Amino acid sequence: MTDVAAGAVPLVDVWRGDLLESRHLGHAVICDARGVVEAWGNPGAVIYPRSSCKMIQALPLLESGAGAALPARRLALACASHNGAAIHVDAVRDWLADMGLGEEDLRCGTQVPDDPEEHKRLLCTGDAACQVHNNCSGKHSGFLMLNKHLGGGPEYTEPGHPVQKAVKAAFEEVTGEDSPGYGIDGCSAPNFATSVGGLARAMARFATANGSDARSRAMVALREGMVAHPEMVAGEGRACTELMRVMDGVAVKTGAEAVFVAILPKQGLGVALKVLDGGTRASEAAITALLSRLGALDPAHPMAMKRLGDPLRSRRGILAGAVKLAPGFC
Amino acid sequence: MTDVAAGAVPLVDVWRGDLLESRHLGHAVICDARGVVEAWGNPGAVIYPRSSCKMIQALPLLESGAGAALPARRLALACASHNGAAIHVDAVRDWLADMGLGEEDLRCGTQVPDDPEEHKRLLCTGDAACQVHNNCSGKHSGFLMLNKHLGGGPEYTEPGHPVQKAVKAAFEEVTGEDSPGYGIDGCSAPNFATSVGGLARAMARFATANGSDARSRAMVALREGMVAHPEMVAGEGRACTELMRVMDGVAVKTGAEAVFVAILPKQGLGVALKVLDGGTRASEAAITALLSRLGALDPAHPMAMKRLGDPLRSRRGILAGAVKLAPGFC
Q: PANTHER family attached here (chains A, B) (predicted)?
């Protein structure tokens, strides 16, 4: 394993007029159940998966039995980086209430919601954003449910807490690597590092899971929950939601600093990518290209073109440029 | 001259925990009146300066005599990428009215303002954003004033229009290069390409201008207008405004896709930088480092630390990481 910069290659270019204006480097890996099938950049580059690994962080919730009865919609929410729209906020509040818990039990911190309607409502009524609006509040609800089962203390985001120990164990098992370290994520939970190849391998395990054991059943339930409720995983206008809606059975998930993963059950493949500079426009364009390459996404669909294909325009609609794949990628 | 990717070097790193999470490559050049003093990356890399060159785009307005009587505040506005706050919107409306023109004469397009108060006002009253809110509406007011003087038609953003021909001529003269092409900017005006070194050379000319001829007087007036009214150049919370406020006589200006320039009259130096991936957090950190290196900015000042030095924290305030200079830069 090497640092994230080692071996990064051009993935996505931004053109304006006849000139290259900006370029994004990075790493992208496609794995099947046996290992790396295809890679651009360095599969050994160490990354923080950030929110792209929420389906891994949710494994102990299901494998422990704590979340065995959870409906698919809540499983999707446990894997979500949601917009804090009313549907997300209401669903988290309901989940917390069903556990006899409340907003004050969360440890994700307050976040102003990205959802335009909810944001407007808060601004114009003077209501305050709260921890339920945090894009990770579904994941944290899952942590709280696991914690009730494990009987741990209230500070469930501390790296030594039983919840996080369980997450780390699952994470290392499915990536097939000892994690070289952790960082504190925006929601204050530890985020375990792995290689891009390790993350793609984990996604291939989700893709090829067949329900033969507790882990495999958990993987199937989580990927199917995401696919069944794309609106819960992100929100209106967001890449995860819009891309899952126009694919058949493929789960995708973004992470901060331009990580993106995909789980392709029909192909038995997992994908992981990281854009070196953290630019989300590039991770969205790159995952769109890879999903198209693998036959999971129609590159001419408006939801694909929105990320890769539509021209860049000025504020008066004049054609200005385009986001393109860099030479040599995909 | 080469494309923007050729010779880019690491400028800014983002760390989380003990691991490098993201890296930004790019080019940075310091020039004096004679040429390049110091450079990282490739001074010959071709870039679009975007809004960083607004003081160049304003030169014909003053050199023609059309804007000879403009107060410093309007000169700052002509160089601005403003937030669309009330002070900016009111100032643009007044300027247009003084010319017997209105919002409908602008060709910059409508933009939802970044200023939180004005954004909230529009959302909660139902008032619509308009072209005056566009961050470039001050530059366009300057274009309109020049156009009145030149007697051109209303489509002053067209590349063949007398206003844009005058801008291109000034641009090529002060960069010392034939522009290799233009792109359409977000505000629909042409944006002429140059090398990073050419842009730094132009800034050095602004820095060393002494009022000896019409161009030199225009350069002094524009840099002094920016320095006298930093609040007009960007807005509250923005890097240009906050950095100019805590420096002595230094003008700085950001541009889309992570360009940043500085004009340092006391040192007789000009600076230009471009982050390859277009990441603004990196261009702000890099210009902060260069201004500190050149003795213009106290790196321990909170407004400097905000861009380079303050830790990254989770939403609950837990220490998570840091933005740092990449090895070898600055």
A: L-ASPARAGINASE, PUTATIVE (AFU_ORTHOLOGUE AFUA_3G11890)-RELATED (PTHR42110)
